[in-house]
Write a structure and sequence with these properties.
single chain, mainly alpha, about 325 residues, about 0% strand
Length: about 325
């Protein structure tokens, strides 16, 4: 554990810097900034000894602290809030996630992306960005380096969404609530959803967060199904059907639903979750080698672009259906 302290301390400092950057630039989500800082850090010409000292802590951040952060993320979710969306919206969210996952996975395999990249990119784009990639890697047991391209792509597209979606709102004629649903259903990371939706006002932000967290709730069954498929394929990895940290995530959701937790407790948990995920995403960013990423060629970019456009189009269609059906949240 002592060997991990320097790397964890560096990652904590990066979270502090990312949080400060978010205060100065509200459109830059803290977790996205953590990934970027990790990429910047690893791109600098550090002596080999420095990297050797920091590596144990960065590895601990990715493998352990990420999982604790995902557990605490469950405290953001209440099944009551999710149920309030109505069966029509819930059904469409499930279909959007499933269709995006299947399309992205299929395209990744069709274009012969290496290793677990198709699966990790599919998880990141369909559910909740870099956090989903980290969670899925707990089942696939992918190396940190194998997560580099998926993390970079989902960060790039999610960041672009912060600028692109608000620019399209008046063109598409969406009101605040419609834009909020579109954002929550299509943007990848929770922080990116907040940064995008808040531009349209508090009503847009409120529905965007609920829709987004409903997508996050699908992380557990998605990972469980993936674990079951890998077991049946017998690829030698023998993953747990449901990793322990996802059990913790589901327990946290149930706790938030049935126990009226004080606001102070939720605030502490939210801050802890942000710090833990930030530390982990800095570690994941530090595994991204820009030179290696540039040499991967256009195929990963093509998969990411198709997935990004597909989930935006599917989500926009869902908004149109919900509006025509008179869903209360969009009135």
């Amino acid at each position: 554990m002592i060997r991990s302290l320097p790397g964890i301390a560096l990652a904590l400092a990066a979270v502090g810097l990312a949080s400060f950057a978010h205060l100065i630039l509200p459109w830059a989500p803290t977790l996205t900034a953590c990934v970027v800082l990790g990429v910047v850090f690893t791109s600098l010409p550090w002596p080999a000894r420095v990297r050797e000292i920091l590596q144990p802590g960065l590895a601990t951040s990715v493998r352990r602290l990420l999982r604790v952060g995902i557990v605490l993320l469950g405290l953001k979710l209440s099944l009551v809030d999710i149920a309030d969306l109505g069966w029509l919206v819930l059904g469409m969210i499930v279909l959007i996630v499933a269709a995006t996952f299947a399309l992205t996975l299929g395209m990744g395999r069709l274009l012969r992306l290496p290793g677990d990249q198709p699966l990790l990119i599919a998880a990141g784009f369909s559910v909740c960005g870099a956090s989903a990639i980290g969670a899925m890697s707990g089942v696939t047991r992918s190396k940190d380096a194998d997560q580099a391209t998926p993390i970079a792509l989902v960060t790039l597209c999610g960041t672009l969404a912060i600028a692109v979606l608000p620019a399209l709102q008046p063109v598409l004629g969406l009101d605040a609530e419609q834009f909020g649903m579109w954002t929550g259903a299509s943007v990848h990371d929770v922080g990116q959803v907040v940064a995008t939706a808040q531009i349209a006002g508090p009503s847009a932000l409120a529905i965007a967060v609920v829709v987004k967290l409903t997508r996050v709730a699908l992380l557990a069954p998605m990972v469980a199904i993936t674990g079951l498929v890998l077991k049946r394929e017998g690829d030698g990895r023998r993953p747990a059907l449901v990793p322990l940290f996802l059990v913790g995530f589901m327990v946290a959701v149930l706790v938030r639903t049935v126990i009226p937790l004080p606001d102070a407790v939720l605030q502490v948990a939210d801050t802890a979750q942000l710090v833990l995920l930030g530390v982990a995403l800095f570690g994941l960013g530090a595994a991204i080698r820009v030179g290696t990423l540039m040499r991967t060629g256009p195929r990963p970019l093509a998969v990411a672009a198709i997935s990004w456009v597909a989930i935006a189009a599917l989500s926009l269609g869902a908004v149109a259906v919900a509006t025509a059906a008179g869903v209360p949240a969009l009135r």
